[in-house]
Fold this protein.
Amino acid sequence: MVDISIVIVNYKSWNDLKECLQSIVSIHSNRFTIETIVIDNQSNDGRIEDFRVLFPSIFFIENSGNNGFANGCNVGASAAKGNYLFFLNPDTIITEDAIYELWHTARTNTNIGIVCCTQINESDKKYNEIRFFPSLTTLFGPFRAWYKWINKRTIAINYNPKQQTIFPDWATGAVIFMSRTWFEKANGWTEKYWLYFEDVDLCKKVNKLGGKIALIRSTFIIHKHGGASRINIKTKALTKTEVLISQHVYFNEHTNGFKNFIIQLLLITSTLIEKTVLAIIGTIFFFVPKLKVNVLILSHLIHYYCNSLKNNTWTSPRAMDYLKK
């Protein structure tokens, strides 16, 4: 057994992954023991062999396919020996102090199910810390603004800049630290998601079990955003479509009855109207890549909605649990 197992899911993010692994292997701590597991979601470019030579202390696993982030995390967790699991993005750079603070917080506060920390980008700008679980009141822009205005006093208290530890509703999948006990209580990552919202889902499950989601401001990690999700227009369209698909999956998992029906209907209506307008603009200005991507998104969405109707499921067709009862 080791204290901490770092689990990283990779898909063609080799340059970022190299920097991330370099920051990990440079850690020689007498405060804790770590192992690092990289799950490659079938990048299929031969580079994993190069990385095995470059980082002989890292355990690399080739997944059976590009099975999504949740599946990759679960594969890594099943191979991990650590009492604590640290799910980390490949486009991050970490330090010994950051790992120790996360571990210390989780170990000394058993009521905290998930711990994360401050994230900054290459320009030293902090990522947003105020995060609410998706709901009818936070789903759409005008509703979200109204919700924040109504709750501005509560937000000011809960996210006071002077507080060293705050408790957002959810933490991003880039930095998820939790004990094996909490991971098993929550039954791991839900594999109905292919990409996006699986982190919100995991936090929601922990929350329902009585666990807190903590963000510690006493330490930080560098997180470079984008990575493999923005390789080209086709990839960008695919990942942006999955954001929309994963919203449907999330609400199907955590709402039911009439409430679920209303939210799903609003999502479909608003999404199709918005993407149809953007696709028309993208068709007219086809020479602008940023606009052209909307044509592909609309095509992916129509295909998804047809499949959902045909197979009576909101689960992403790319997810491992697609059509699983």
